[in-house]
Amino acid sequence: xxxxxxxxxxxxxxxxxxxxxxxxxxxxxxxxxxxxxxxxxxxxxxxxxxxxxxxxxxxxxxxxxxxxxxxxxxxxxxxxxxxxxxxxxxxxxxxxxxxxxxxxxxxxxxxxxxxxxxxxxxxxxxxxxxxxxxxxxxxxxxxxxxxxxxxxxxxxxxxxxxxxxxxxxxxxxxxxxxxxxxxxxxxxxxxxxxxxxxxxxxxxxxxxxxxxxxxxxxxxxxxxxxxxxxxxxxxxxxxxxxxxxxxxxxxxxxxxxxxxxxxxxxxxxxxxxxxxxxxxxxxxxxxxxxxxxxxxxxxxxxxxxxxxxxxxxxxxxxxxxxxxxxxxxxxxxxxxxxxxxxxxxxxxxxxxxxxxxxxxxxxxxxxxxxxxxxxxxxxxxxxxxxxxxxxxxxxxxxxxxxxxxxxxxxxxxxxxxxxxxxxxxxxx
Length: 428
Fold this sequence. Notes:
The protein is built from 15 helices and ten strands. It is of the alpha/beta class. The longest helix has 39 residues, at 301-339.
């Protein structure tokens, strides 16, 4: 009986220094697939390799031998003994393996639940496997179903709707203030990692330009080049407030970079255009009183963390809906897998019926004399219809028993009744 197995490690079971041993070489996936193709115990396989997980998904009729072979494969790929990583591995079989890949693709098993990158990574892994010809009937259907499940989760739940990173929460707040970020201008003050990431997210949402101010002008030029933007002197910040719409600050200053009077003096010339400050610095770069000015909005790191916490709670609620979708799809796919056990018998019944039909046509045609093409077609249609109707009920019964405990009994009876396992049509 064929088994679907998922064996691997992820961010919860293995530290990064262990995971990186298995993904540091650029050709790891191709090498793994080539090895899996040579293993006698594995029928089909694919290999998922990301910064947060390393997994082998495969089918086998001898799961214990296949497991030993895959662990040895991982040992070779990582250049380390099996005992160094064996305790970090998890193994799922059949329904649990199906559920696991559905959950992974739906980002329910990710470090950040709802992140969209993992689905693309799984699609890449599947593409590699099809290119290396290591997948077949079972994994092809499983992966297409996996993509369907991920799409259902994305469209039927809000699991990916809310920002759960500081940088992305900043973008979410900016969109609430401006609604449309298209054409907006950004001033990035300082070169903190979160601030740069927020600026990158803003660019992805259509802002027109990014200007960078830093105490070290050389560093400002470097950062500006990364965003295809422009560098400005630190002393120009006051003048820049007249032109930009969004200001992201992330400096190591011990005092305020932007104070109440600086912003107030710029408002008259801004003609009521909103000004949005994202202050990610600790201690803060923007004086809190700035938030009291009209059409000015200031959010600091604690405000952003509050948004993230609310959104994480919302994602947890949506994850419950997603888990229900996954479980529903697991049941559907498992039922299909179970029908695979009856397929060979159904095929044999059809083949035997067709062989009998063809033999009887040949025997009858000799006594019917010369027939024109339309008469031959009529005989073909008649005999084909009769054969299909005769075997239809047994086939329907077998399909209906595919997921029942009595399946093997019905398969045995069917094979005996149609004499599928007897040579030369002999009796038991």
